[in-house]
Every structure is written in C-alpha cells, then in structure tokens.
C-alpha cells in the first residue's frame, strides 16, 4: 500500500471542523500545504478555501511537510538518505541565508517535526524502557537547540512549535506506543519541550489501528455505527492541559529531582509550572516511572511553596503497570470500556482518587508506581467537576523527594532552576 495516497474532499470537511470548534469551544486549526509540487494550483486553492470557510478558527498554514520523505516520491532524488543532520543543516541554512529576515512579516510560527525513533521500515532501536528514563526526554528536547538560540536572539522572535510528535514515526511500535508508559512519556516530553522554548506541541494521529492514536473509530465503514476506543495516548492530555491552566500563560521548569535530567537510573522527575505574568507556581507535576513492583515514591514539598497556607488538591494519572493499554485512570475516572466519549468511575485496582492535602506547614505527596501526580497549587482547574482547592500563591525555594522515607532529602534551590521563555504553551489536537 502506498504511503502517499491522494485524498479528495469538499466543503463538508470545513463544516465538520467548524462544528467541532463550536461544540468544544476555542479549537483552532493548522492547515498543511505541501511543497511536493510548488507549482500545483491546489496549494492556493486550498489556502483560500480554508481561510474563507474557517475564518478566525484558522490559526496558520504550514508550508512544506516531511522533506525527508520527498525523495521517496521522486522529489529531491539526490537526497535519498535524508537524515536528522541533513534537516538540521537545512534549517540552519535557511535561517542564516536571509530567509528568516526576508519572510519575517509573513511568518507566524517556526515549526518542526521530530520523533525519538524511526519505525518506517518495521524496525526500531529503543524499547519501552527508553521512554521511562527522564534524561532521554531531556536529551531529545535538545535536538534543535542551535536553531532555538537563533530564534531567541533574533529582533522579532517567532514562537516555535513542534507540530508533530509521538513515540515513534510511521505509526509507532506495537507494545510501546500503545502503552501507559508511552502516555507518561508524552506528558514528560511535552513539558520538557516547554522548558527549552517551544510554544506548542501536537501529538500525531493517523488512520484507524495506528498504535499511537489517541482514539480509534469503530470497526465499520466510514461513518458507521459502533463504539469508539480510547487509547493510552489520549490520557496524556489531561495532566498537561490541567497543569497549564494559568490564565496568563505558563512557564515550565524542570526541577531536576535527584539529578533526573542526567541520571538514567532515576525513576522520578518533576516540573513546576509558573504563571507567566508572575513568580507564582500554579502547579507541580510529579512522575514516578517505576513499574508496579517499584513501589510508591514520596515527594516532600516545603512550606515555602505555600506562603498563604490552605489546602491543595492532588490528581493522579494511574495504571496497574507501564504496559497497560486499557485500565488507565485520571482522577477516579476512565474511558476504559466506554464508546460514547463519556468518562466513567474507574474500578481499576490502581485508581487513586483526588486527594486534598493541608500544606500550610509543608506536606508529603505520595505517588504510586507508575503514575503522574498534578499538584494544583493555584487552585483546581474549573474545567473539571472535581473538588476545588483553596486558591493560593507561592514563591517556592525548593522541592524535596524521598523514596520510602529512607533516603536523605534533596533540596533544589530556586537559583538552580533553568530560565525558560514565557510563551503560552498549549497542547492541541
């Protein structure tokens, strides 16, 4: 089967897109325009029709897509073995050749696409353990740091977007991309991208049956009746979107707990999410990548996180183990076994309901393995009906992590935290 299939569509597609945006509220779209044949009349026709049909719901056009695949279809035949280094060279060349300055007024974003590994030939380098090591997410996010520095130093910097990513290219890897471990990695990597300067990141989705899909339609003809299936990757959206609920935008900082940014043997990680317009921490995201046999980890948050006192709410993304594909829960809810898009109360043994914790004198947050915990320092998101926490503001000076209360505490001073850009960071479908 060809991986370059022409698709014919009409105005009904735009009707559906408009309806989705109106129903959900606030959804905007990026429209890709291919450069496979730059002289094709379809490019301006699609751009004009999309702009007319979508109006303000059209965020931007993406001009050019996957240049490493062009040669396979008869374009750029002299670059049949297009590599990451080739792309880095191309990216550096166009920035430094005057292209960025020449088209500055026409550019809204700079976009990239990148996967941790290639599965296009049916082989892969990394197994699931790769995705459970925080230091690998840190290294992967550094992939285009030279280009990021160029953007940051330009007189009129453009937001940088990772407009396509997932666990492995060409549909992912069965047994890896369709697991809870990969969902945890998606959260970790998305937040890591925010720390180095990306303004948005888009999880990829394809036709039915692809292992990294967020969800799959029923096994029926297009538009046929039947239940939909929610896949592990979908659950990554919950901790990200709720942790980044600051009204003025978010700044994300890697806490480097127990030197997790470099130590591949660490099974923990953590991020602080700041309100972009202040020095207040809005939420804290804590990871325990250890499998079920690894036991719980206890993270100790000092009183300096909570100068106003009051209670905070902790919400968990959990599963029985990192290989789980179905019994995944956010809070005490799950989409396992449902086909109508409405979450139900989870009965999985690994489920952890929301916890309200008093932190006026500091507190300990226990995170089972494997799980992600979001600590809502600035109040529980209004988009979820879960119990609300008392709003508070903070200027933290450190975070502590202890495992089984046996290891010595590790304080992370504010001065050691990395500086990040203040772009609004969102995850969009």
Low-confidence stretches: 383-429
The amount of helix comes to 10-25%
Question: Total number of helical segments?
Answer: 9
Radius of gyration, CA atoms, in whole angstroms: 22 Å
Strand residue percentage: 15-25%
CATH domain class name of the largest domain: Alpha Beta
Number of strands: 20
CATH H-level homologous superfamily name of the largest domain: Glycosidases
Largest sheet: 7 strands, antiparallel
Tally of distinct domains:
2
What would the average pLDDT be, to the nearest integer? 81
Q: List the secondary-structure elements in sequence, H or E.
A: HEHEHHEHHHEHEEEHEEEEEEEEEEEEE
Second CATH tier, the architecture of the largest domain? Alpha-Beta Barrel
Structural class: alpha+beta
Q: End-to-end distance, in Å?
A: 27 Å
Shape: globular
CATH topology of the largest domain: TIM Barrel
Salient structural properties:
seven-stranded antiparallel β-sheet, TIM Barrel, four-stranded parallel β-sheet, 9 helices, GH79_Enzymes, Immunoglobulin-like, disordered C terminus, 2 domains, alpha+beta, 20 strands, GH, Beta-glucuronidase C-terminal domain-containing protein, GlcAase_C, about 425 residues
């Amino acid at each position: 089967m060809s991986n370059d299939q022409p698709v014919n569509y009409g105005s009904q597609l735009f009707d559906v897109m408009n309806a989705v945006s109106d129903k959900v509220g606030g959804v905007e779209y990026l429209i890709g325009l291919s450069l496979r044949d730059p002289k094709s009349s379809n490019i301006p026709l699609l751009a004009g029709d999309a702009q007319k049909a979508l109006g303000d719901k059209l965020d931007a056009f993406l001009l050019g897509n996957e240049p490493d695949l062009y040669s396979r279809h008869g374009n750029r035949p002299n670059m049949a073995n297009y590599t990451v280094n080739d792309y880095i060279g191309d990216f550096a060349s166009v920035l430094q050749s005057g292209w960025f300055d020449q088209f500055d007024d026409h550019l809204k974003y700079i976009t990239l696409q990148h996967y941790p590994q290639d599965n296009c030939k049916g082989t892969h380098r990394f197994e699931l353990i790769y995705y459970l090591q925080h230091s690998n997410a840190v290294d992967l996010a550094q992939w285009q740091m030279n280009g990021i520095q160029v953007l940051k130093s330009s007189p009129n910097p453009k937001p940088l977007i990772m407009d396509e990513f997932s666990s492995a290219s060409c549909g992912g890897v069965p047994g890896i991309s369709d697991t809870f471990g990969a969902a945890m990695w998606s959260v970790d990597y998305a937040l890591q991208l925010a720390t180095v300067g990306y303004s948005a990141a888009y999880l990829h989705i394809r036709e039915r049956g692809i292992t990294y899909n967020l969800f799959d339609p029923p096994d029926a003809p297009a538009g046929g009746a039947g239940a939909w299936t929610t896949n592990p990757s979908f659950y990554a959206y919950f901790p990200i979107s709720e942790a980044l609920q600051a009204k003025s935008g978010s700044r994300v900082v890697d806490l480097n707990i127990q030197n997790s940014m470099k130590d591949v043997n660490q099974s923990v990680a953590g991020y602080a999410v700041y309100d972009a317009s202040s020095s207040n921490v809005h939420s804290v995201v804590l990871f325990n990548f250890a499998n079920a046999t690894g036991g719980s980890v206890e993270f100790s948050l000092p009183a300096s996180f909570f100068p106003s006192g009051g209670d905070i709410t902790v919400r968990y993304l959990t599963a029985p183990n990192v290989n789980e594909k179905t019994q995944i829960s956010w809070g005490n809810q799950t989409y396992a076994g449902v086909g109508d898009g409405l979450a139900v109360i989870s009965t999985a043994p690994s489920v952890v309901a929301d916890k309200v914790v008093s932190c006026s004198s500091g507190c300990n947050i226990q995170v089972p393995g494997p799980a992600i915990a979001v600590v809502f320092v600035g109040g529980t998101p209004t988009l979820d009906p879960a119990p609300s926490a008392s709003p508070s503001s903070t200027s933290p000076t450190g975070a502590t992590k202890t495992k089984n209360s046996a290891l010595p505490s590790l304080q992370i001073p504010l001065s050691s935290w990395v500086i990040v850009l203040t772009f609004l960071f969102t995850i969009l479908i």
